[in-house]
Amino acid sequence: MMPLLSGKRERYILYLTFVSLAVLILSLYSWSSYYRSIYQIQKFAMDVYIKNELGFDVGSDAIHFGYVPPGGKAMKNVNITVDDVRTLVTIESEGNISGFMRLSDNDFILEPYETRKVEVSAVIPKSTQLNKYYNGTLMVILRKI
Predict the structure, then answer these.
(1) Residue 2 is assigned to a structural domain of this protein
(2) What is the CATH number of the domain that holds 125?
(3) Residues 29 and 43 in one domain
(4) Is residue 50 part of a domain?
(5) Cα–chain center distance at 126
(6) Are residues 32 and 70 in the same domain?
(7) Do 95 and 135 reside in the same domain of the chain?
(8) Strand order in 115-123's β-sheet?
(9) For position 122, what pLDDT does the model report?
């Protein structure tokens, strides 16, 4: 009867299995630590209407870009302030408006009580169809570091 791991090939397979499991465990730990550090997510509704004219919407209930023509750009400013915690700020967008979104800054660190102004822009390609409404959500994710 031969020993369970007699050949070099079997030892190599065992070694690769062990290394793969170790990498998987470390990855899961890193991932869970990253998401556990989230202490706040702020969500803001956003919308833009593609029209062959300019129109402003100054409502404060959401980030309204108003009417923007194809090839045009609309901008809004968002001030982000943190409390007494050193914070990594990440900004993401969801919805059919996401492809148009541009940010002046993202993935930055704020010290306690610091404020940063971020310009949020809707940049509309010239090929965008007229008379369409796009909307979504801007998420500001705050992580303790």
Answers:
(1) no
(2) 2.60.40
(3) no
(4) yes
(5) 25
(6) no
(7) yes
(8) 73-81, 115-123, 101-103
(9) 97
When divided into structural domains, the chain yields a total of 2
Same domain, 69 and 24: no
Q: What are phi and psi of 14, to 5 degrees?
A: -60, -40
- Other residues' Cβ atoms within 10 Å of the Cβ of residue 50: 21
C-alpha closest to that of 74 among 122, 120, 129, 118: 122
As beta bridge partners, residue 31 has none
Give the span between the Cα atoms of 48 and 125, in whole angstroms. Answer: 13
Residue 112 has a pLDDT of 97
Q: For 33, left (φ over 0), alpha (ψ -120 to 50), or beta?
A: alpha
Q: Are residues 28 and 94 in the same domain?
A: no
State the pTM of this model. 0.74
Q: Along the chain (145 residues), what's the average pLDDT of each consecutive run of 10 residues?
A: 65 87 77 72 96 86 96 96 94 97 97 98 96 97 92
The pLDDT of residue 58 is 82
Left, alpha or beta for 113 (phi > 0: left; psi -120 to 50: alpha)? left
Structure tokens of 60? Answer: 């404060």
Q: Which domain holds residue 129?
A: 39-144
Query: Which distant-in-sequence residues (6+ apart) come within 8 Å of 138 by Cβ?
Result: 43, 44, 46, 63, 78, 91, 92, 93, 101, 120
